[in-house]
């Protein structure tokens, strides 16, 4: 069984401030972890994925996430928020390296305040 | 634009009816995935096809079925519709299981 928990359904940051979106996972096998972004009225876009190669994963748009097995976490960060980062972010886990049977978190809506 | 197209964009129908959602993957992509996004259940993986064959099944109801055709487009059929089936249905494609996945803009289904 696998699941993800995203802490905070809404997060607000000021433009230029650090973005930290939290995700904890539960998996009975070594997990593959993903972060997706969904802009209003659009489909999802993959930001980054962890497939056990390196614990610090760099993604698109300046985002990165660190896999911490001891904390069962995969938090998403960005040093400096831009207005264009306002969107909904989903953490997801899969038992395989691919996208099959992915389980998504409930999502975190990021608001960026000018 | 991801290169994945979905039609129709919006669909309004009544309970008990049957609808078909269509997805055209990016050129060259062999895998197609279907997802449902609703307010109460969040985002759920429904089913995956690879080169015409079913490869993985998620939380897909028996009233729902899908197929992928020889030209690689896919259709998701939803029958005996209920109010709770109202949701956004996304299609995504990738070259294979682990390559970058691209999502379509979605079809918003409203069941009245």
Features:
heterodimer; A: 114 residues; 5-stranded antiparallel sheet; B: 112 residues; 7-stranded mixed sheet; 4-stranded antiparallel sheet; 11 strands; globular
Give the SSE layout.
The complex is a heterodimer of chains A (114) and B (112).
Chain A (H helix, E strand, L loop, with lengths): L1 E6 L2 E5 L4 E9 L4 E7 L5 E7 L5 E3 L5 E5 L4 E6 L8 E8 L8 E2 L3 E6 L1
Parallel strand pairs in A: 2-11
Antiparallel strand pairs in A: 1-3, 3-8, 4-5, 4-9, 6-7, 7-8, 9-10, 9-11
Chain B lengths: L4 E3 L2 E4 L5 E6 L6 E8 L3 E9 L2 E5 L6 E5 L5 E5 L8 E8 L7 E2 L3 E5 L1
Parallel strand pairs in B: 2-11
Antiparallel strand pairs in B: 1-3, 3-8, 4-5, 4-9, 5-6, 7-8, 9-10, 9-11
Q: Please report which band the strand proportion of chain B falls in: under 5%, 5-15%, 15-25%, 25-35%, 35-45% or over 45%.
A: over 45%
Distance between the termini of chain A: 41 Å
Shape of chain A: globular
Shape of chain B: globular
Mean pLDDT of chain B: 94
| Structural class by helix and strand composition of chain A | mainly beta
Poorly predicted parts of chain A: none
Largest interface, C-beta within 8 A:
A-B, 20 and 24 residues
Distance between the termini of chain B: 31 Å
Q: What is the average of the pLDDT values of chain A?
A: 91
Residue stretches of chain B low in confidence (pLDDT < 50, at least 5 long) are none
> C-alpha Rg of chain B, in Å?
13 Å
User: What's the story with the biggest beta sheet of chain A?
Assistant: 6 strands, mixed
């Amino acid at each position: 069984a696998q699941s993800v928990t995203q802490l905070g359904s809404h997060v607000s940051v000021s433009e230029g401030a650090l973005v930290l979106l939290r995700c904890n996972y539960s998996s009975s096998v070594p997990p593959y972890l993903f972060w997706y972004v969904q802009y209003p009225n659009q489909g999802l876009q993959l930001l980054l994925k962890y497939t056990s190669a390196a614990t610090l994963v760099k993604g698109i748009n300046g985002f990165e996430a660190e896999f911490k097995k001891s904390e069962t976490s995969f938090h998403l960060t960005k040093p400096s928020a831009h207005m264009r980062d306002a969107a909904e972010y989903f953490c997801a886990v899969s038992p395989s390296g691919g996208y099959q049977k992915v389980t998504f978190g409930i999502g975190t809506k990021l608001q960026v305040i000018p | 634009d991801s290169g994945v197209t979905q039609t129709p964009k919006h669909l309004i129908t009544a309970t008990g009816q049957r609808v078909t959602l269509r997805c055209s993957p990016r050129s060259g992509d062999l895998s197609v995935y279907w997802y449902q996004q609703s307010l109460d259940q969040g985002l759920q993986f429904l089913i995956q096809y690879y080169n015409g064959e079913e490869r993985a099944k998620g939380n897909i109801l028996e009233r729902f079925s899908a197929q992928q055709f020889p030209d690689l487009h896919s259709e998701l059929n939803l029958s005996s519709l209920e109010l709770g089936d109202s949701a956004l249905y996304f299609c995504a494609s990738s070259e294979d299981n682990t390559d970058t996945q691209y999502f379509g803009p979605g079809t918003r289904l409203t069941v009245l």
